[in-house]
Amino acid sequence: MKKIYGIISFLFLGINAIAQDSTIALKEVTVMARAKKKIETEMKMAVTVDEFLASSDQISFIKRGAYAWEPMLNNMSTERSVITIDGMHIFGACTDKMDPVTSYVESNNLSTIDIKSGQEGSLHGATVAGSIDLRRKNTPFSTESKWGGAYQTGLEFNNKQFFNLGNVSYSSERFVADGSVSFRQAGNYTDGNRAEVKHSQYNKFNSSLGLAYKIRPLSSVRLDAILDIAKDVGYPALPMDLWLSRALITSASYKQLSENGLIRVWDTKLYFNAVEHYMDDTQRPENLVHMDMPGWSTTYGLVSRANMIAGSINSEIQLNTYSNLSIAEMRMYPQDRSQRTMFAYSWPWVTTRFASIAMTNSWDISGKSRLNFGGSLGYNYNFSQYTEFNWIFHPGAPREKSRILPALHAGYQFNTNNFDLSAGAGYGHRAPSVSEAYGYYIYNSFDRYDYIGNPDLKNEISWEVNASAGFKTDKAGIEARVNNFYIRNYIIGRILSLGSPMNYQSVGVKGYTSLSHARIFNVAVNARYDLLPHLHWKGGLTYARATDNKGGNLPFIRPVSYQSSIHFMYKKMSFQTSVNGDFIQRNYSPEYGEDQTADYWVWNASADYTFRLKNISTVLQVGAENLLDAWYSTYADWGNIPRMGRNIFTSLKFSL
Amino acid sequence: MKNIFLLTALYFAVTACTLDKTDYLAEISTIVTEHNEFKEVAVINGDEYKVTLLALNGTLYKGYNEIRVQITNSRTDGSENISGATLLPVMSTADGSRASCPHRYDLIYIPDENYFSGYTVFTHESSISENWELNISYTIAGRSHTVKQSVSVQPQPNKNLNMTAFTGNDDERYIIALVSPQKPKVAENELVAGLYRFTGNSTDSLQNAYSEVNGYTLQLDPRMPEPSMGNHSSPNNRDLTQGENGLYHGVVNYTMTGNWTLNFILLNQNGKIVKGTRVPLDFTPGVEGKKSELYIDILF
Predict the structure, then answer these.
(1) Among A157, A158, A489, B290, fewest CB within 10 Å belongs to which?
(2) Domains of chain B with CATH codes
């Protein structure tokens, strides 16, 4: 389903751009505008990127605090998914995953987030879980000069979050500019018992700039940059906070369109991004030892894609190459400060070079049925500069490692007016992440083990089947989606009998090893029903089950979860209320450091009012999350930190 | 043009890192200076022959020193027909007593580079009351020559070349002297040590005052003693056993830079403990690590 959406949107993106240039019918353009999802949820119009992603039933989150949640796609952590910004690869600089890629963008510089499940996501790189592509705002050229923009401000009372988000755009026949600036500032939040969760504050600044220039009627160049700075961010679930993280994400692209012929769109982008991340443990007096843990991640790469149309087959070919250097240091200070500090690399200057050629095709067999198929072939190369660190646990491990990463997928879709059916399968490899292969005493505060990478890990190999079925009428619809992954050489940390912990909070050392296999099964059911023309109901239910080679539970698998919402519109006002929750976590994994998490549910409500101030469209929204002030913690809350209690939020948005 | 320049400058200003990365190799070198070059300690001009004494960095330190002796004809610069070179270090104290230290008495000729190879393990630094003298003898055409040179033994600044002297449970006196690595890395390091027994009780000759100990085993348990490190240790270490060159070879892994204690248990040929105690294995954050009865501290 996502697949079709993806292809259609790519197609329309192309046509959209062509339409601007050669004034073909405007019909497609409006279709595109509708197909674009806005970065807001049903409940809330001023959301963070994390909150927006959370509204997808394929995404769950590991939360270490109020900021920078780690997105889990199909109940798999970020090593197994490809997270890109406009197809650009970028890697966090924190060994503790305090800075997932999604923390370096802001909702006001994104237009949509494209999630593809499983091997359909292999277009952007080798993956098991799928891909999350964060698409930036990209205003098209227009025949007349036009200014656009929006400004949004608001308050969230629980953690005194104050935010200001602004973006402007200018478009003309030959020149387009997009810019955005945002500030968010939040204090500590309080849980459902009105207890303050210390170290949960954050401060984030994000700005972006995009400039496009049409050099010929059908070709354009574009420069883009994002600068994101987060300062003084607390991580209540970790023994340290963030002093500063900074990402600079830049790209230059060239786009060539063609009205006929085989290749309709050809888009090539050179990119460079640099991420730096500095932790700070000086705000935690309970810490026995002061540590500095700076990290750097620098990536440059090239992504080139071409859209082709031949008869009833639409194809996209994408070439991806990048080179990343990940460095993380740890320096411990002895209690007697006159003594020598202790130093080691947790990422010993690890270079990753990757190249892949990927293709995905969509063949319209008839008006009702379609075959999607594709594959990719990737090459992954790792080089560890200070490989002697890795030799301590893996004597003689190679300094360099090359891997071939193939992927294949196919799916069949059958659509009639009321029914949708699809079935598909996929096969793909992924290489171990830098931490999994070369990590060195990376402290995991969830199970309190120090993790050691293994350069000799085998490729993780995924076999996947998926299916969906849906029934819809004008008033109602129901859809079920299911997927099952059988993953060979599943990489996970296991207790090592040798070695002793380095971080004083930890209880032992775990090494990344491969289980012979693991299984992950996900099912999601979504339904909607229009009770009245202006009263809509929506609901969803997800279930997942994941087991290791011995039938034991894997960690961080979402228990049965549900959500139900009602949306009512009256004149210029709209009201929405929702309930969501998880059942008790039955299949938890003590072996991997989990304890059972109780069930919970929370109730949210909001109202908004739309009006015009002259020609400015204005929306005022007031709402509350967790209205009943429930105290709860989810299965994926690191260290069982409680979630936010009642949170009243207001926001005001002006848009041109 | 100016704009482009400004933009470029701005770009580099923004891309520059906020904090500098650690220069790891320089980091290790701040504490440890590695000496790889043999330099002259002394030149002794004998009757016809010149004797050149070489050591790493041209300095003799307390602990293990590899010694090279070059003997050349003062006139021809040649060194033919020289044989049977010997070395005897002698320490004389203020009260008139004389002692030696572990050393190689019969030097080994290395023809390729034309020198005689040996070592001494100085047990004391030179001081007002303790003076070291090297006696070098050699034979040319059946005629024996001896030269003497008083030398200065300096404190060893590199803790990785530390030594320890102790009395074992068998009432014998032993010396363990670290030979290498001079400059450890956060890595697997080959650990080499010399093990010597004092035999001076049973012999009057200074040249036999110490002997190399054969066939023993040095069990190794490296730990970081710093309280915040909680008795941290490393995996994949190997006990030291005697190699062909008489020295004891093992493997030590250092997981990070800083202070480490090499805890030893010395076993004799029969596996009986000569010296040393087991150290606790548990992780005890906040508590200074306990050391074996037999240990050497290192730092890098």
Answers:
(1) A157
(2) 38-154 (2.60.40.10), 159-299 (2.60.40)
